Amino acid sequence: MTGPGNMSVQRLTYYPVKGCAGTDTASASVTTTGLAHDRTFMVVDAADGAFRSQRTLPAMAAIRPTIADDGSALHLSAPDVDKLVLQVAPEGRRRAVSMFGRPIGEGVDQGDDAAEWFSKALGAASRLVRVPDDFDRDGWGETPGKVGFADAHAVLVVSQASLDHLNALITARGSAPVPMDRFRPNIVLDGCRDAHAEDTLRRLDIGTVGLAYAVRATRCAVPMVDQRTGARSGPEPIRTLATYRREPQYDNKVSFGMKAAVVRQGSLSVGDLVSAVAVCEADG
């Protein structure tokens, strides 16, 4: 197979609670819905089950969840809130949940202690739910795949070359460069010959894992949130992305990175070489 450069995995990150801080890892097992422990939990509106997001609650970025005891416990910390150690309930009362105004199924409610903790941390009445073991949700795109509580796809892939190119444009405009965590990727690729080479990748074999292209990753306000503090710090990088990454096929939104489906479960690690099949931009 051929690919756009001698690519390898530079960084792996999973996000235990959707919208909250990520955890870098040296290696990960990968299921049909993505990296193990990625978006296993989701914070929802206590009244209607709609998901909470940094789009409206940027302070979520400063909430730091940590998976413990092989997933049976969740440690939570946030500014000005006492830490909480939560014993995870894989089964129990279920609650209907939704994303972007659409029902996606049910989540397992994690109890009143978690609800009170997130309600205090976010200043909004909330509940915490877990992905049920029997959750079955389809993605969409060229290779739809399956997805849990991520927006719509199993894995988000971004290349370092793309960020370097974007930051060169941002600094040329007199603004400060942005770190990779603004884009909340699961897999960061090193060694791509060109910026946005990930747009052209249609199949990636990494470790024992197989991934296939679904869609380009369109962007909202989240990349303008400082992922360390939970404070908005825009207009970059969206302002600069809007000058060259508008996507007419996606309602003229800007894009950065690509979303992929898992077509072969397995494991991967930082440093793994990436074998990829790419298509020419004109073909894709």
Could you give a short description of this structure?
The protein has helices spanning 112-122, 160-172, 238-241, and strands at residues 5-14, 23-24, 27-31, 34-35, 41-45, 64-68, 73-78, 81-87, 94-99, 102-109, 126-130, 155-159, 187-192, 201-206, 209-219, 246-247, 253-264, 266-269, 274-278.
Query: What does the largest sheet look like?
Result: 9 strands, mixed
- Broad shape: globular
**What is the β-strand count?**
19
Mean pLDDT: 95
What share of residues is helical? Answer: under 10%
Radius of gyration: 18 Å
Low-confidence stretches: none
Oligomer: single chain
- One letter per element, helices H and strands E, the order comes to EEEEEEEEEEHEEHEEEHEEEE
Q: How many alpha or pi helices? A: 3
Distance between the termini: 17 Å
Q: How much strand content do the residues show?
A: 35-45%
Structural class: mainly beta
Q: What labels would you give this structure?
A:
284 residues, mainly beta, nine-stranded mixed beta sheet, four-stranded antiparallel beta sheet, 3 helices, 19 strands
Question: Could you characterize the architecture of this molecule?
Answer:
The protein is mainly β and 284 residues long. Helices cover 10% and strands 39% of the residues. It has helices at residues 112-122, 160-172, 238-241; strands spanning 5-14, 23-24, 27-31, 34-35, 41-45, 64-68, 73-78, 81-87, 94-99, 102-109, 126-130, 155-159, 187-192, 201-206, 209-219, 246-247, 253-264, 266-269, 274-278. Strands 1, 2, 12, 13, 14, 15, 16, 17 and 19 form a nine-stranded mixed β-sheet that branches. Strands 5-11-10-9 form a four-stranded antiparallel β-sheet. Strand 14 (201-206) and strand 15 form a beta hairpin. The mean pLDDT is 95.
